[in-house]
Design a protein that fits this description.
Blueprint: E1 2-10, E2 16-24, E3 52-56, H1 58-63, H2 65-68, E4 76-79, H3 80-89, H4 91-102, E5 108-111, H5 129-148, E6 153-157, H6 161-169, E7 174-175, H7 177-183, H8 187-190, H9 202-206, H10 223-232, E8 235-242, E9 249-254, E10 259-264, H11 265-269, E11 277-282, E12 322-324, E13 330-332, E14 339-346, E15 351-356, E16 369-375, E17 383-387, H12 390-393, E18 396-404, E19 413-422, H13 426-436, H14 446-449, H15 461-465, E20 469-471, E21 477-481, E22 490-496, E23 502-509, H16 520-528, E24 532-533, E25 538-539, H17 544-550, E26 558-568, E27 574-591, H18 592-600, H19 607-629, E28 639-643, E29 650-655, H20 660-683, E30 689-692, H21 698-710, H22 720-729, H23 737-746, E31 753-756, H24 785-797, H25 810-844, E32 848-858, E33 861-866, E34 871-876, E35 888-891, E36 896-899, E37 905-907, E38 911-919, E39 927-932
Parallel strand pairs: 3-4, 3-6, 4-5, 6-7, 20-27, 21-27
Antiparallel strand pairs: 1-2, 8-9, 8-11, 9-10, 11-14, 12-13, 15-16, 15-18, 16-17, 18-19, 22-23, 23-26, 24-25, 26-27, 28-29, 30-31, 32-33, 32-38, 33-34, 35-36, 36-37, 38-39
Cofactor: Mg(2+)
GO molecular function, one term: RNA binding
GO biological process, one term: nuclear mRNA surveillance of mRNA 3'-end processing
Length: about 950
């Protein structure tokens, strides 16, 4: 059946055109019930004998997704009109409801009501789109009841009073979410409900914890007023970033004034959360920049809003620093704009991990109890929830979601989502790391696993005879990776040629031979974006059969690869380069330590060791040439743990050691990435996925220059080449001096990001750190989805395969690159959080005295770096009671903090002896405390 939908559309030229869209209606769309006597039941998803089938309206899906994810809610129909509306309003919830519907263990069925002849409805004159959608939901619910008969109850779940009233008038069974959940006799499920803010008894909740003063926030401006204010320059838009060490200090990067606007205190933050897109109004200039923002904080965050902890990196907070005045007081050297938030443009609320604030058990049991949830991440305020299971939650890590934040309330309101596990348990705390960083660690679905070839897998005769694939099994290929590496996605070869040159190859796992566009496997990899490496485990982007077997370039097995092959002179000049799909058979899978030992052992003269030495010789020349072009050799405080194989607890901790073998592999991976970037950009100038590293601004480099000047070191940062030369010359008696300077330089850099080549001009493609005009990621497709995309681009550029349709849609490509950047950053943050967690576990029973270097001065202490363990943290010189810094002041010029009587001073990069010990100043928030010996 064909139904024509017509509507008018205004063109850019102002003409009004009538458009007609054909809408096909069918009578072969089935209901999904296995007991139905009319429909084909082969694709049935509902259970065999349900007492009730639920039909969910849009707002229930949007607001009660935490409840719907609970296994107790089952036998539900999700209408296509509901899915479409949810997709338009909240993509995150849409993905979650789609995941439920595609889960074979859940009885959720998607019914295409908009294309069914009996459930499609035409729009009525004067009817709003929302009213039409509500009517369509009621019509579909009525159809289900008539279709399935009296043997099963079909129940519309809606919290919309008007929709419920009309449903009852039309003879449709309809209930609110709360009424239905109560009928299940599962009190714990009631904790999952999102309640409207008007249902909250404010007086009862605010009595939870007496405060020194009533906090009342200003009302958020309506969007119409915000939009007008942004156009007139009264308000400024940007993303709120809360200082991760001080929840009462935040900043908003504003393009309209070209600077960061500093936000001090909860009142000025006005109920905004970290990550919210906000509208900011500047405060009068005499209220800009106060000294307190640069102090290191200590004490309970709720006792005083004027506590502050200095940031740990260039991205965490404003870079203004106080200066010593003639009286020894601290004065601000430059004013930075300060402001207050007047409206929320886009919320960034999600689920938060933490625990309930300890409280006595109320008399009686089983009733509703109001409690305060404390997030593990200090950037987020406490959240008030109500629960019927207080006794079971007090010693647990739990997940809580935010529902609302009333302007009369000190804290936002939320609801319990689920329990993670016992506080302090390593597995529980590791799960917290994953949730806080939005890492998908769920097992791969049956649909994804169905995309994999059967095991055992071997290279087939068809692969070997395929004209697109070169047989390189006779080439002496080897891999060099971290110890214990199982997901080997790169291998190398270096063969001496008769003319005195070398044939050098980089062979990368041919992942796209198994991951095809548009499949569930590809969709899952695109969503995950990257593998995540924690201290004790790896969370894969692709299923293990691919990562550790089928695609892994293990030794002595034939594997498919995508190869970049150069002919190079002994001076590492490239004579020619080519790209080919290939078949290889690796002769050795070595660790960095093993490869280094081979190269260093003068007694070994076998062919493999000779290849390693030749390759290392080429790599050194390539590296030197790259540095001469201006590439930076930076450093980071990478930590390596020795883990107990049975308990998974850390046995030892230390700085990660970089060897020549590491640098050799890195050099050829960089070269392969650059060669591939040149190839794909030449073929697809508008839709190539590249990676750029923006040049740091003068403001970003300010902390580094200030530190260098204080120790009499001149750094030229006019170009990356000048900076690289300056860093090379920054040497001192201290063996850690140069590494510390390079770590400080690293923190001044911006993040490298993926982008679509058509979005920017070629000068903006530049990768500052590598001094490369173009760069991409090609060498790790097992663990990065960006590389999968680049493999497809490279194959298309060689005429091997047709370019997938997604590359024709620049908007979709931009969305993919945005997700890749988000997932890449989250994976980094999760890795760091895992290191912090295991550092706490290691030092919990090992109080330690050690040596440290001062890397940042603040008005009541300083930050130190501990080279032996790769740890950084604050050391306090004053207590909370010593207002204004006590007996200490900062000598800005010399970057020193001195006692007023001059008896003691501490300066930047000075060596100090410190004591490391795990303490718990606040319940359930253990931390590593660093104190002077």
């Amino acid at each position: 059946m064909l139904h024509n939908k017509s509507f008018v559309k205004k063109t850019r030229a102002g003409r009004v055109m009538k458009q007609v869209r054909e809408h096909y209606l069918r009578d072969d769309i089935f209901c999904g019930a296995p007991f139905c006597k009319v429909c084909d039941t082969s694709g049935a998803r509902l259970s065999a004998s349900p007492s009730t089938i639920l039909v969910l309206d849009t707002n229930v899906v949007l607001h009660q997704i935490d409840l719907l994810e609970n296994l107790a809610i089952d036998d539900a129909v999700v209408l296509s009109i509901v899915l479409e509306e949810v997709k338009n309003k909240n993509l995150s919830v849409y993905n979650r409801i789609r995941a439920i519907c595609s889960n074979s263990k859940r009885n959720f069925f998607v019914f295409s009501n908009e294309y069914h002849r009996d459930t499609y409805i035409k729009e009525m004159t004067g009817e709003t789109k929302n009213d039409r959608n509500d009517r369509a939901i009621r019509v579909a619910t009525q159809w289900y009841q008539n279709h399935l008969g009296s043997g099963v109850k079909v129940l519309l779940i809606t919290n919309d009073k008007e929709n419920k009233r009309k449903a009852n008038e039309e003879g449709i069974h309809a209930e609110t979410v709360e009424t239905y959940v109560k009928s299940l006799d599962r009190p714990d499920l009631l904790d999952l409900l999102v309640r409207p803010s008007e249902d909250v008894d404010m007086e009862e909740v605010e009595d939870l914890r007496p405060s020194k003063r009533k906090v009342i926030y200003i009302e958020h401006k309506p969007m119409s007023e915000i939009t007008s204010g942004l156009h007139r320059g009264i308000y400024h838009q940007g993303k709120l970033r809360v200082n991760r060490y001080n929840p009462f200090e935040a900043y908003v990067g504003s393009e309209s004034i070209g600077d960061q606007i500093i936000i001090y205190g909860r009142s000025n933050m006005n109920r905004a959360f970290d990550g919210d897109i906000v509208a900011v109004e500047l405060l009068p200039q005499d209220q800009w920049q106060e000294e307190k923002s640069l102090s290191i904080a200590c004490g309970d965050e709720d006792e005083d809003e004027d506590v502050h902890l200095a940031p740990n990196s260039a991205d965490d907070a404003p870079r203004t620093i106080p200066q010593q005045g003639s009286s020894g007081e601290i004065n601000a050297v430059s004013s930075r704009p300060s402001g207050r938030i007047v409206g929320i443009i886009k919320r960034n609320w999600h689920s938060y991990c933490g625990s309930l604030e300890p409280m006595p058990m109320p008399a009686g049991s089983g009733g509703i109890v109001h409690a305060l949830f404390v997030s593990k991440d200090r950037r987020f305020p406490k959240i008030r929830i109500q629960t019927r299971q207080l006794e079971n939650l007090l010693d647990k890590r739990i997940v809580v979601a935010v529902d609302s934040w009333d302007r009369q309330s000190r804290y936002p309101s939320g609801h319990y989502v689920r329990t993670i596990g016992e506080i302090g348990d390593r597995d529980t705390e590791s799960e917290v790391v994953l949730i806080e960083n939005d890492i998908n660690s769920r097992p791969f679905s049956s649909q994804v696993l169905a995309c994999l070839p059967p095991l055992p897998w071997t290279v087939s005769s068809e692969d070997l005879s395929n004209p697109i694939r070169q047989d390189l099994r006779n080439v002496r290929v080897f891999s060099v990776d971290p110890p214990g590496c199982k997901d080997i996605d790169d291998a190398l070869h270096c063969t001496a040629l008769p003319n005195g040159n070398f044939e050098v190859g980089v062979h990368i796992a041919d992942v796209t031979n198994f991951v095809h566009p548009g499949t569930p496997l590809d969709d899952e990899a695109a969503q995950r974006g990257t593998s995540v490496y924690l201290v004790e485990r790896r969370i894969d982007m692709l299923p293990k059969p691919l990562t550790e077997d089928i695609c892994s370039l293990r030794s002595d097995v034939e594997r498919l690869a995508f190869s970049v092959i150069w002919e190079m002179t002994p001076e590492a000049d490239v004579v020619s380069s080519r790209f080919t799909k290939s078949v290889i058979k690796s002769s050795a899978a070595m660790s960095y330590v093993e490869a280094q030992a081979r190269m260093d052992d003068s007694r070994l003269m076998d062919p493999l060791t000779t290849d390693l030495r030749n390759m290392n010789s080429l790599a050194k020349k390539m590296r030197l040439r790259r540095i001469e072009r201006g590439a930076l050799t930076l450093a980071s405080a990478e930590v390596k743990f020795q883990i107990d194989t049975e308990t998974h607890d850390p046995l030892d901790i230390g700085m990660y050691q970089i060897r020549e073998a590491n640098q050799m592999v890195e050099e050829f991976m960089l070269a392969a990435n650059v060669s591939v970037a040149q190839q794909i950009l030449k073929s697809f100038p508008l839709c190539s996925l590249l990676r750029r590293h923006p040049t740091p601004t003068k403001e970003m480099l300010e902390p580094l220059l200030r530190t260098a000047a204080a120790i009499g070191l001149h750094l030229d940062v006019s170009t990356s080449k000048a900076m690289a030369d300056s860093l090379d010359q920054a040497v001192g008696d201290d063996p850690y001096f140069n590494k510390l300077i390079r770590i400080l330089a690293t923190r001044c850099m911006s993040q490298a990001v993926y982008f679509c080549s058509g979005e920017l001009s070629p000068p903006e493609y530049h990768h500052y750190g590598l001094a490369a005009p173009i760069y991409t990621h090609f060498t790790s497709p097992i663990r990065r989805y960006a590389d999968v995309i680049v493999h497809r681009l490279l194959a298309a550029s060689l005429g091997i395969f047709k370019l997938p349709s997604i590359f024709q849609d620049r908007g979709q490509l931009t969305s993919v690159s945005d997700n890749l950047n988000y997932r890449h950053r989250n994976a980094q943050m999760a890795g760091r959080a895992s290191v912090e967690l295991h550092t706490l576990i290691y030092f919990r029973k090992r109080p330690t005295d050690t040596e440290a270097r001062i890397v940042k001065i603040r008005s009541n202490g300083f930050f130190v770096f501990v080279p032996k363990y790769g740890i950084e943290g604050p050391v306090y010189l004053t207590t909370r009671s010593e207002k204004g810094g006590g007996e200490w002041y900062i000598d800005e010029q010399q970057q020193k903090i001195k006692k007023i009587d001059g008896s003691i001073s501490y300066s930047i990069l000075q060596t100090v002896q410190i004591h490391l010990e795990v303490v718990e100043p606040q319940p359930n928030r253990p931390k590593l405390q660093l104190s002077l010996i």
